[in-house]
Amino acid sequence: MIKKMGGADITSIARIHKTELSGFLPELGEDFLKKFYAASLHIPEMFTLVEKENEQVLGFVTGCISTKDLYKKVVSCDIFGFVTLILGYFITHPTQIVKLVKMLTYPGFADDSPELLTIAVDKKYQRRGIGKKLFHETVLEFKKRGIRKFRISVYKRLTANEFYKKIGCKFEYSFIFLGERMNYYKYES
C-alpha cells in the first residue's frame, strides 16, 4: 500500500536510496540521507510516498513543487547537524568538495519548477510494477497540489530512461551535471 512517508520509514528509505541510486547524495552516506528525509517532513513543498508491505518499505518516490533553493530549505531545518555531517565527510574525502560546489549548480535549483526528485525500489522487489505505481501516485499527489506537469532528471547511462519513456514522459533536453550527461523529461497529465 502506498502512503505518505512517516518518521519510522526514514531509515529504510535512506538505505534504499544509498544502495539503489547513484549520484552525490548517496555518496554522503545513510546518515546524511536520514537527516535529508527527516528535514523534508518539515518542508511543505516536498513529499515522499512509500510502498509498504507488512510495515516493510519496498520503494519510495520524492517530489517537490518547487526546486528553487531546495537544499537551502533542507539544510536550514538542522544547520548544525548537516554541517557536522558534511564537514566529517569532506575531512575524509577532501577531493569531493569540488563535487559539492558543482552540485549547487544543478539547473533545477534556479528554477521554480515541480520535479520528481527520486524514485527507487529495493532490489528484491524490482520488476513487480512498484515503480510504476509510485509514479502514478506521484502524478495524483501533484494534481492534488494543482500541478499537471512536472519534470524528472536522470543520468543518461541509467536504464531508468526507458522506464520514463514507457510511462509517458517526454524527453526535453540533455545537460552535463557533475561531469555526466543527464536527461530532462517532462510529464504532463
Overview features:
single chain; 189 residues; alpha+beta; Aminopeptidase; seven-stranded mixed sheet; globular
Mean residue pLDDT:
90
CATH topology term: Aminopeptidase
Which class of secondary structure composition applies to the elements?
Answer: alpha+beta
Q: Number of folding domains?
A: 1
What is the strand arrangement across the widest sheet? 1-2-3-4-5-7-6
Count of runs of 4 or more consecutive helical residues: 8
Provide the low-confidence segments as ranges.
Answer: none
Folded structure, characterized:
The protein has 189 residues and is of the alpha+beta class. 40% of the residues lie in helices and 27% in strands. It has a single domain (2-148), classed as Gcn5-related N-acetyltransferase (GNAT) (Aminopeptidase). It has a 7-stranded mixed sheet. A hairpin with a 2-residue loop joins strand 6 and strand 7 (180-188). Helix 1 (10-20) crosses helix 3 and helix 3 (30-40) packs antiparallel against helix 5 (79-92). The chain is globular, with a radius of gyration of 16 Å. The mean pLDDT is 90.
Summarize the structure.
The protein has 189 residues and is an alpha+beta fold. The protein contains 8 helices and 7 strands, in the order E-H-H-H-E-E-H-H-H-E-H-E-H-E-E.
Write the layout of secondary structure elements.
Blueprint: E1 2-4, H1 10-20, H2 24-27, H3 30-40, E2 46-53, E3 56-64, H4 70-76, H5 79-92, H6 97-103, E4 115-121, H7 130-144, E5 149-155, H8 160-166, E6 170-177, E7 180-188
Parallel strand pairs: 4-5
Antiparallel strand pairs: 1-2, 2-3, 3-4, 5-7, 6-7
